[in-house]
Each structure stands twice: as structure tokens, then as C-alpha cells.
Amino acid sequence: MEISADIRIEDLVAAMPESVRVLARHGIVCIRCGEPYWGTLRELADEKGIRDLTPVLDDLIRTAGGS
């Protein structure tokens, strides 16, 4: 799985459930009241006012065991 700003949140969470905690550390809540967000990481980050996804992506890749 390639982790990028254009990954769909539902695909990310299905492949890597621990991503929910990683995103929350960066102020991106993708599941609220048991209802998931549907869309891309970039779209969700934009809604939260986060423009630079580099730290988020680095953390996700590190958590996934990537380099």
C-alpha cells in the first residue's frame, strides 16, 4: 500500500488500523462517534486547516514500517 495525501481514509484505516491514532496525534480525527470519514487524507486535512502533510505522511510511513 502506498501512503500518500491522496489515499482514501477508509483504505488507510482498513489496511492500517493504527493510523487512526497517528492521524489523531496530528489533529486529524477520521472517526467520530463510530462514523468514519469518507474521502482522501488531503481532503480531511484541508477541513482541519492542515496544509503541510509531510509530518503526517512521515509518521504514517514510519508506523507502517516504511523508511
Q: What do you see in this structure?
A:
With 67 residues, the protein is mainly alpha-helical. The protein has one domain (9-63). 46% of the residues lie in helices and 6% in strands. It contains four helices and two strands, in the order ααββαα. The protein has helices at residues 9-15, 19-25, 41-47, 54-63; strands at 31-32, 35-36. A two-stranded antiparallel sheet has the order 1-2. A hairpin with a 2-residue loop joins β1 (31-32) and β2. The longest helix is centred in the C-terminal third of the chain and has 10 residues, at 54-63. The radius of gyration is 11 Å and the shape is globular. The protein starts with 8 loop residues before the first helix and ends with a helix. The model has no long low-confidence stretch (mean pLDDT 89).
The best one-word shape is globular
Order of helices and strands: HHEEHH
Q: Count up the domains.
A: 1
Distance between the termini: 14 Å
Bin the strand percentage. Answer: 5-15%
Helix content: 40-55%
Structural class: mainly alpha
Question: How would you summarize what this structure contains?
Answer:
The chain is mainly alpha-helical and 67 residues long.
SSE layout:
Blueprint (H helix, E strand, L loop, with lengths): L8 H7 L3 H7 L5 E2 L2 E2 L4 H7 L6 H10 L4
Antiparallel strand pairs: 1-2
List its traits.
67 residues, mainly alpha, two-stranded antiparallel ribbon, 46% helix
